[in-house]
Amino acid sequence: MRRHVAPELAGVDSPRDVAPSDARELTRMLLRRLAALEEGTREYSYVRSTLIELNLSLVRYVIRRFDAQREPQEDLLQVGAVGLIKAIDRFDPDRDVEFSTFAIPTVLGEIRRHFRDTTWAVHVPRRLQELRIALAKAQDDLTTRLDRAPTVAELAGHLRLSEEEVIEGLTAANARTTGSLDFGSADDDESGSPLADRLGQEDAAIDLTENLVALKPLIARLSTREQLILSLRFTDELTQSQIGARLGLSQMHVSRLLTRTLKKLRDGLNAA
Question: Whole-structure pTM over 0.70, yes or no?
Answer without folding.
Answer: no
